[in-house]
Specification:
Chain A: Residues 116-323 form the ABC transmembrane type-1 domain. The complex is a heterodimer. In chain A, 73% of the residues lie in helices and 0% in strands. By secondary structure, chain A is mostly helical. The chains are: A mainly alpha, B mainly alpha.
Chain lengths: 336, 295
Amino acid sequence: MNGSLAFIFGLPLAVVVLFFALSAYERRRGIATGPGFFQRNGLAVGLYLVLAVGFWAFFIILLPQLAMVDMSFRPKLPPAQMGGPKDLYTLENYRYFLFGSTTSTAEWNWLHIKAFFLTIGVSILITLINFAICYPLAFHMAQSASAARLRVLLLLLILPYWVNEILRAFAFRVLLSSGGIINQLLMGSGLTHEPIDFLGADVGLYMGLSYAYLLMMIFPLYNAIESLDRNQVEAARDLGAPWWHIHAFIVLPHAKPGIASGCTLVFMLTAGALAAPLVLGGPRTLWFTPIVYDRFYQAFNWPQGAAYAFILLVSCILFVLVVLKAFRLSLGEITR
Amino acid sequence: MIPGPFQRVMFALYTVIFFLYLLGPLVVMGVSAFNTPQYPQVWPIDGLTLDWFAALFADQDMMTGLKMSLWIGLLVVCISVPIGLAGAIIMTQIQPRVRSLYYLVVVSPVLTPGIIIGISTVVFWRQFTGQTGTRFLYDGVVLTVLGQASFISAYCMLIILARLQRFDRSQEEAALDLGASYPQVFRHILLPFLKPALASAAVLAFLSSFENYNTTTFAILSDKTLTTVLAGRVRQGSTPAISALAVVIVAVTVIGAIAFEIYKRRADAAAARRQRAALEAEEAELAGTPTPAMG
């Protein structure tokens, strides 16, 4: 137990010492010039900078993540036995994700595996759909809308996002319920005679998820396309390029960082969404985050929940890396 | 760009559908807040009522949750803005060879799913407070503030960094040449320059905290915020009181946005006046007439 405390305090200290050693080394070798860190900021401000960023980077970001990963490799034990002889590293929680409980007869833990791949697959699909929905409007806003029109469009876009995620999901429930306005319209027009169970078929969930993160797609796209010089589009048109050539060879390549950043954001938020699946999902809905939630608060198996959360995190990181690789971009370019 | 009539019609149609998708659900929900049936219903309108708003304000849990959300939002602003400021300054001073690693670490919470941040915060602080005998820190409010601060500080840092990169280093050098110390430069040059960015970071921090659900639902432990109470209510069943809450939130934010716009216009006008006055004074000086000494 004391070992982990030494780690918790030792790691930040070691990194800070390493930083100052590096800077002293560079100064002596003449690579770095100018005043040193504390000379440049003064002692008080310098201390504030180091302490604030140190606390943030270690106690709020890194150490909690490490603690979660560590826990995911431990068995579920009553508090009294934690740190005792039975508290050994194990792959049990990951084994459970693949093969289910040791007493079950099924070969694989299909329920969880299916939910996982469905979540990833649907998130990718929603990301692509959101890109398709947002691109024309983003292009219009960035390239051809007048200033007054742009202000109105921006206001209309932002307005729904003042309402929080749960209420937005709730709006879809009101809209799509069996007595809701969509079903009334469908039945009134004679297209169907029975109300369609949109929520049971997860249509509501997917619409709600796509809706929830439209803004995260449109703003990066808008920012990226806005920086494109309009003369380039004009020139291409004057030279006789058809409209789809202009988009495929001028606008899209230029907007690459914005596209990657929008896609990453939407994918991450969709795969990690919890509110929409809880509000719009039916009892048979497969989505990964509610399963993680249940590991904690239904099964009370925290190590297993941590393992599931880690699986989700790793797949999200892999996805981002693949997207970055595919677009040949660095992380700095997409979080701008 | 001169699109043909066909393209123009298609685009108009697309825009209408887009905004119908974007605003339709909210309008539907808004209407149901004023309709009498027990279940949120838009059509037919059986009768207009304000009962659902009364029911909302009589809901004790919601009101306690609201107070808690406001309190947590305030704490998050007090923690995230200073951290974001420090993070942005360090970003401009850190050795280039470790900058990308530093960037990766501090921006990672923006991309991490909220529930993972919530889970890891709870797991870490449960162990840490247990081992150091600071159990009183293992508290829903503290954990929620810490969990939310991880990514909200990163938002703040990105906002402040964007302005910091436009900072004119020669201002700093001028101040130093005139005998200012480094802390004085920080206090009298850098902070005033960053003030607009700090203000928008604070507003964004508060709003993100107020509407956060994914991280909060784990980190809040046995306490309740508005969003967690709301999630519980929505899962139990639909009532128009929930629609009423959405109407209230939209009304408050629209009024807030209008007030902010008016304030900004006034501030811009004042700044323009000051600039004009300064220009006139300068011209007067160039013309050789003595000007009153500036304080």
